[in-house]
Amino acid sequence: MTASQTPTTAEELRGAGLRVTAARVALLETVREGDHLDVEAIASGVRDRVGHISLQAVYEALHALTAARLVRRIEPPGSPALYEGRVGDNHHHLVCRSCGAVVDVDCAVGKAPCLTAADDHGFSIDEAEVIYWGLCPNCSTARSS
Ligand SMILES: [Zn+2]
Ligand SMILES: [Zn+2]
C-alpha cells in the first residue's frame, strides 16, 4: 500500500491488528456512514449489508473496534451508548436534553486544549470528554411557541 492510496476498510482492520470478518467490515462502514448511532441502529445497518447477525455479535465487534480506536463510543448520561467513526480528534458533543439529538462540535480553542488538565495527578491523559447539554433549535422553537 502506498501513501497515496486510501486503505480499504478491511486493510484498516488488519492494520489495527484485528481479524477481518464481513461483519466487522459492515459494522465499521455502518458506523462511519451514520451519525452517532446506537447499537440497534448499527445492528440493522450491518444486517442490511451482510444478512442476519446476532446482537451479541454486534456488541463483540463494537467492543473490538472501539478498543482498536477505529470507532469511538460516547455515553451521554441517560442515553444509550452511541458510536461514531470520527476518532482521534478529541471533538466534543452537543446533546439536546429534550430529543437526544447529538451534534459534533470541534474543540473550543486550537488543538485539543482540553487535554491539558489543571492538575493531571500523574495520569498520562489521552482523551477528554466534554458534553454540552441544552436544547436543539427544533426543541427550543417548539417550547417557545
Ligand atoms: Zn431537541
Ligand atoms: Zn461525534
Report on the structure:
The structure is a single chain. The chain is α+β, with helices and mostly antiparallel strands and 145 residues long. It folds into 2 domains: 9-74, Arc Repressor Mutant, subunit A, CATH 1.10.10; 90-144, Ferric-uptake regulator, C-terminal dimerisarion domain (Dna Ligase, domain 1, 2-Layer Sandwich), CATH 3.30.1490.190. Helix content is 36%, strand content 13%. The protein has helices spanning 9-15, 22-33, 39-50, 55-67, 137-144; strands at 72-74, 82-84, 92-96, 102-105, 131-134. Strand 1 (72-74) and strand 2 (82-84) form a beta hairpin. It is globular and about 45 Å long. The structure holds zinc ion (2 copies). Belongs to the Fur family. One of its GO terms (cellular component) is cytoplasm. Pfam families: FUR.
Question: Would you spell out the secondary-structure blueprint of this structure?
Answer:
Blueprint: H1 9-15, H2 22-33, H3 39-50, H4 55-67, E1 72-74, E2 82-84, E3 92-96, E4 102-105, E5 131-134, H5 137-144
Parallel strand pairs: 3-5
Antiparallel strand pairs: 1-2, 3-4
Bound molecules: zinc ion (2 copies).
Could you provide a short overview of the structure?
The chain is an alpha+beta fold. The chain is 36% helix and 13% strand.
Strand content: 5-15%
Number of strands: 5
Number of domains: 2
Bound molecules: zinc ion
Q: Largest beta sheet, briefly?
A: 3 strands, mixed
**CATH C-level of the largest domain:** Mainly Alpha
CATH architecture of the largest domain: Orthogonal Bundle
Overall shape: it is globular
CATH names the topology of the largest domain as: Arc Repressor Mutant, subunit A
- Averaged pLDDT, please? 88
User: Radius of gyration, Cα only, in angstroms?
Assistant: 17 Å
Q: Provide the structure class.
A: alpha+beta
CATH superfamily of the largest domain: Winged helix-like DNA-binding domain superfamily/Winged helix DNA-binding domain
Helix content: 25-40%
**How many distinct helices?**
5
* Succession of helices and strands: HHHHEEEEEH
Distance between the termini: 57 Å
Strand order of the largest sheet: 4-3-5
Low-confidence stretches: none
